[in-house]
Amino acid sequence: MPQTLAVEFFAPGVRLITLQRPQALNALNTQLLSELAAELADAQADDGTRAVVLTGSRKAFAAGADINEMAERNLVGILNDPRQAAWQAITHFNKPLIAAVNGFALGGGCELAMHADIIIAGEDARFGQPEINLGIMPGAGGTQRLLRAVGKSMAMQMVLTGEPIGARHAQRAGLVSEVTQPEFTVERALHIARNIAGKAPLAVRLAKEALLKAMDTDLASGLRFERHAFTVLAGTRDRDEGIRAFQEKRTPTFTGQ
Ligand code: HXC
């Protein structure tokens, strides 16, 4: 049983993971990162889980890497560090991941939110990369994913000054897709997750992979990947079911085949 996470299941196939280290504003220590990586690995292996929502508390999604732990354990030997292994596992999660962010998403917390495919933010959410104030810099994708999300000027400003931006600002910049009242953030994310969980799983998986390709490849390679994925899906039973259901004016029942 994880001690720093709460896990709940919702039909059809949605898993809600809530970070729970309230005494440290969900700071990401080794235990939390390892438990989160294990939970995502479990969700990935489970055919019944079709989408995951990740959230924190009203005050903090996550206030970053655990600074007290960082004081004790330097990142020397980073490849052998269990935190690094956990980040790798989180990066490779291949099902839809939606972050429901209220309050602080700072440092590693902002980087964790940016691992999600979709970010829904409460209007009091604060996104920032304050590592520069500690004499370091983002180390879990912050420079790369933030720049791709908000563009060069905004990313430079956030990383070099350490100053956070609010939810509306983050939405205008393209970092988050929707802003809600904080009491509805998780509900809204669950609603989107349920919607996605009802779609054909193979189509969802390949569409996610194709969209992520757009972030790290040239247009010609991305288009090649898209055509290949599209062709693969053309041979699936779920494609036949989707088209038949449309013609028969009924809701499709997808099986993942
Ligand atoms: C450890 C933390 C923490 C953190 C907060 N706490 N953030 N503990 N690591 N990242 C603890 C505080 O020490 C305090 O514990 C309790 O949580 C409540 O926090 P307060 O500071 O009292 O709350 P508040 O005044 O509301 O300020 C909230 C805050 C501030 C603005 C978020 O806590 C803050 O600036 N935190 C640090 C944010 C940060 O620098 N993150 C980047 C970390 S570096 P006590 O015991 O005193 O009550 C990073 C690198 C990633 O993320 C690298 C990835 C490889």
TrEMBL record:
InterPro entries: ClpP/crotonase-like_dom_sf, Enoyl-CoA_hyd/isom_CS, Enoyl-CoA_hydra/iso, Enoyl-CoA_hydra_C. Transmembrane segments: none annotated. GO terms for biological process: fatty acid beta-oxidation. The keyword Lyase applies. It holds the Pfam family ECH_1. SUPFAM superfamilies: ClpP/crotonase. One of its GO terms (molecular function) is hydro-lyase activity. Keywords: Lyase. It comes from the Bacteria. NCBIfam families: PRK09674.1 (NF007239). Belongs to the enoyl-CoA hydratase/isomerase family. This is 2,3-dehydroadipyl-CoA hydratase.
